[in-house]
Design brief:
Layout (H helix, E strand, L loop, with lengths): L1 H41 L5 E9 L3 H10 L6 E7 L7 H17 L4 E7 L2 H11 L5 E7 L2 E8 L3 H23 L1
């Protein structure tokens, strides 16, 4: 009877230790990922490029002004289609964007600062072209100025799973503390 009691206590301690270790590991992983992503927004790699895409109108003047204001002295590549852009133009635009991607790859681009103005459906096509390439820093035009919105790393979706696991770990911790 005494041996069973001791084994029971040891088993309980191991279970509690396992939960604490797992939650702590997940929390540290999430913190490290968050720190990395924040640093990623401010660091500039060895050979950055700015890709300016204006479908419907040219935005290169605004973007170049923004880059100068931010003291980002990086080469730019501009792609513009004036006027109305319809879905009939999708494949020629994709072909042009693939050529630009090849050109920037040949130039040794290590990251791309993406500035885009145009239809949402074309934005998804731009995302498909640039998927799993180099890190893409996506800028958003809000309140009359550009702001860095996010950084899309290679295999970003897989990276987001770590955050989801950390959130699930927090939920387990909260439930454990409530019990």
């Amino acid at each position: 009877m005494k041996l069973e009691s001791i084994v029971g206590w040891v088993a309980n301690l191991i279970q509690i230790g396992s939960v604490v270790f797992t939650v702590a590991s997940l929390w540290l992983a999430k913190r490290e990922l968050t720190r990395y992503l924040k640093a990623r927004k401010t660091l500039i790699s060895a050979r950055p490029w700015a890709l300016i895409i204006g479908l419907g109108s040219d935005i290169s003047g605004q973007v170049k002004g923004y880059l100068a204001d931010q003291e980002l002295d990086i080469p730019t590549k501009t792609y513009t289609r004036e006027g109305y852009v319809s879905c009939d133009n999708l494949y020629p635009i994709l072909k042009d964007l693939l050529s630009i991607k090849d050109e920037l790859t040949q130039a040794g681009a290590t990251e791309v600062h993406l500035f885009y103005k145009g239809p949402v459906t074309m934005a998804m096509a731009v995302g498909a072209v640039t998927d799993n390439w180099v890190p893409i820093k996506v800028y958003e035009y809000t309140r009359g100025q550009y702001e860095l919105c996010c950084v899309l790393e290679k295999e970003t979706v897989k990276g987001l799973l770590i955050g989801d696991i950390a959130e699930a770990g927090k939920a387990v911790l909260v439930q454990t503390q409530a019990s």
